Each structure stands twice: as C-alpha cells, then as structure tokens.
User: Fold these one by one.
Assistant:
Number 1:
Amino acid sequence: MNRYELEVRAQCPANKKVLDVYQVVVVSRAMIEVEKLWSYFKQFEDEAIFQEELTRGAALAFPGAEVTTTGWHSCVKTTCTAP
C-alpha cells in the first residue's frame, strides 16, 4: 500500500477571497507519480470547490485510491473520505 500526504489549497466557494487549506491523504495499491498528484490538486487554487467535491473528484481522478481530506470551515473541522 502506498500513502501520499500533502497540503492543498482551494478557493472557498462561500468567500472567493479565501483559500481553504486541506490536509490530504491518498492511499493506493498502485504507485501514483507525485507530480500527477500535485498537478491535479494545484488547479483548485484558482477554482472554487467544496471539500466534498474535491474529495470525490480526486478519488475519481486516481482510480482505486482512497482519498481523505481534512479542513476547517467556520470553526468546524470537516473530514471527507471517498473510495
């Protein structure tokens, strides 16, 4: 099993002047090139996206991977996981 951990920033859909920060964990049996991971997530710095959509989209972009994101929104810690 391979485990990749990174910090990702994405534009907040509720306040586009704010960048949300997420701790992301991707677990996969297959190797994923870290450059592909970074390239995928980097696009969201300029795009408004909800955490749940970010998590599901990443799981679809890397078939067979489980993706977990953790972030804080209005003092609420939110963790999302998508297979």
Number 2:
Amino acid sequence: MAYTDAGTEIRRLFIDSGPMWRVSGRNSLWTYEVPGTSLTCRKGTEFCVDHVIVAHGWPPVNSSNRNLRIRIRTAVGSPVQSSDFLVQLDEGSPTFSSLASELSTKLSALHASSFTVTWNSATFQFRVQQSGTQAYGFRILSDEELQSMPFNGALVTNPMSANKILGILSASASSVGSDSDGFTNLADYGTAILLRVHSLRLVCQQLGGATLSERGATGTVCKCALSEGFGELEVQRENGSLEGLWLPVEGTIKRLLFEVQDEYGNELVLPESCPISFTIASRKPEEV
C-alpha cells in the first residue's frame, strides 16, 4: 500500500499527461509529480496499471512505420551486384492510390530504371513493376528477411517499416516471382492494410524494473491493445483477474518519468490535443 506524508492510505493514483497535470515534457514523454505530497511504498507493496484511456492520435503512416528497404540489382551475371536504398513514405493519412503514386515517384528516383506501382482495389494488393534501362531486378526486403539479411552491410534491429501497410512479402512468395537470386521485375504483394498503431507500451523506469520487454529492455509497466472506435477515445480496461499484472514497488515516490513507446522502443508521439491518462492501483501482500 502507498501512504501520503500524513499517513493516508492511497489505493489508486490517477495520472494524466496533459499540460495541466504534468511538470514538464509532452503528452507522450513527460514528468509526473504526485500532487501535494510524496507516496511511501512499504516493503511488499505491489502496483498495477489497470485502466488506460488514450485518443488514437497517430496517423496511419507515422515515424514508426514509414520505412521501405529495397535492393536493386545493378548488373547482370554473377556474382550479384546490387545497391540498397531506404525509401520513406510521407507521414499522414494517405489513400492506397496515393501511396501507389508516391512510391512510383520515389522508387523511380533511385535508379536509371523506372518503377510503376499500381493499386488493385478489388484484391487490396499492390503491384510493383520495374522497366526500362537497367531493369535488372529488385527485391523489397520483408520484415522476416530483415531479421537475418544485412541491409547496407548491417542487420536492421528497429526497422520501423511500412511492410505491413503495403503487404510486402518475402522473395520466396510465389506471387513475387523472384529468380534464384531473389530478384524480380514484377511483384504482386499481399493484402495491404492502412494500420493505425495497434498497441502501445507505457514505460516508467522507476516502476518497471521488474519487467523485460520483447527487446530485452526494462521499464514497461503496461502493454495496451488499441481498437478503432470511430475516432473516439480508445479504452483499454483489463477484465477479470489482474494477478499477472501486479509488480513490486518499494520506497518513496514523488516524481516519475513516463513514456509511450511502440514495440521497438520508439516514442509514439501524441498530438498536443491527445494526452494519455491511466490509473495505478496499489495493494499490500495480505490483500492477495
């Protein structure tokens, strides 16, 4: 259980990242201060984040999912000669047709060959075709390939890729039409989805020292799924038992640094009009 300086038990702490309630920072990376007192968490105290409310303020294409990595073959014959290029989509709320136009322009600017990207509204799939001078083949690296295949000489550990949005498949997929070296001139990719952010991590190093994320980092105190909700507030409330969510905490709490992150540890920047609010519950062992 947490206690104020006057000895009052505090069972729930309500936190909001908005400018009226934070000490400093912004909606997705801010310093919170317990108002009017500090909180002492005695030995054996546990806490959990059991209620999160956040407006879905992330556009479908944002800093966490805008990268496309393409390998373009530069000569015929063996050994394979190629160059790697990073293409970044414009952030915002595009349509599939506007993405096709944007990619046609940006891919064609990389090389002497021309690229045409078309959108099939019946199948929800993109087609990428290379033609013209030096059209020796290309390979757009999928998320699976990036896990083991160096790009520009190094493995990419934080791709922030647009592959889910564009439905990018690995070179081995039959519709990609790759040759024995993994290159193609005409690729039909999988189902495209203009995903918004589907989940977030609430990170606080002072509270989350007993957690380990997918990346091996500490500090995550809550992982929330987000649903669409027609642009209204997205609400994540844990239903049923909270037993697996309780974490140990001990000592005095006054100021805490919080950050909203994606699964790769990138800050999920929230617009100023979209703060995040949540509840921290506390208990002592004898209440179990």
Number 3:
Amino acid sequence: MKAFALLLLSVLSASIASAQSQSPDMTVFGLHLGEKLAIPECGRLTKKSDIYAENVKAPCFERFAVPWAAKSKVVTPVVTESVMIIFPYAEQPTLSSSGKLMGQIVDGSLESIGFNTSGLSAQERTISSLKEKYGDPSKVLDETKQNAFGAKFDSPVAIWGFENLTVIYQATTDKIDSGMVNIDTKKGSDFRDASLKALRPGPKL
C-alpha cells in the first residue's frame, strides 16, 4: 500500500505539463514548507519514557519511524525523517479527518505535508479551501471508483502545479470516507521519487 501511494503521487506529479504562473503561499496551517521545522518534539510522559504525552498545549511533532525502544534516546533536531505533527485540540486543522498532519523532513527542512480528509462528504469543503489558497487547479482528472457493494461514484483528483510546489487532492483513496491532500516542495517530490525507487529496485541480472 505504501509503495502504491508513493507511485500514484509520483505519476500525478509528473503529469503536470507546466507550472502555474503565480507564486504560491508556502505555509500550510502555519507551518513553512522549505524551511527548518520550527516546532519542538512533543513531550513524553516522563523524562525516560518512550511514550508521548497527550493533550499538547502547542503544535509539536512525534517521531514514528524510530523504534519505540529507541525514541527516548533520539534528540532533536530531525534531519531526514517522517514525523506526525500534532496540534492542541482547539487548533486542529478541520480539513484533516484526524486533526493531525504527516510531515516529511529532508535535510532538516519541512518539504512535504500530507493529511487525510473525510472523503466524499468533505469534497466540496476541501476543494473550496484549496482553490481559495492556490487558485484554480492546473489539472483535474475524473476517476470512477466502486464501493464494496458495487455502486460506482465519481472521485476527482485535482492538481496544482507551481515551480517549487505541487498540491495533489484525491477526493477518495481506497475508501469512500477517506481522501488525501499532499503538498510537496520540489525537494519533497524528488525525495518521494527516490524513496519509490528504493522500494522498487527492479530485477537483477
């Protein structure tokens, strides 16, 4: 599933023929893409604990690619790592179905942000918010999907392409109640492409 998601995003990013002319806003929910991650790691239950505390009071990040046993031994700053970005309850992004964001750090800078939406029920609200921020999409792909009962439904994919930013919105992923938004700098897109190649090295001679 992870490899398929990487492949789909890579193909969609490559399908953009030309970049939109205006310079996009490089912030996402107050976080600056292409810059050093400006929030701290979330606190733990105790000083030696491997478990993160709940009910944070300010935006922070959690490491999840590091084994639990090693988390208490890892210190900030992150260099190249995937993280989960957590917000206080009152500040959680309403477009994100979980209220959390996925972040990709590359060479110490935040280069990609992704989050799940609530699928088709959130489609109008999500596309409206993205248009308000980025203008009309560069491309819209009309996809037809089918649920577990055999009913078919439209599930568009909208793409915004800028010189140093790509935004991809999938109204649904593998479920009708789950969509996805990915926002990548060029460096973030390149990192995803390299990750995909590492997952699929190809046959040997």
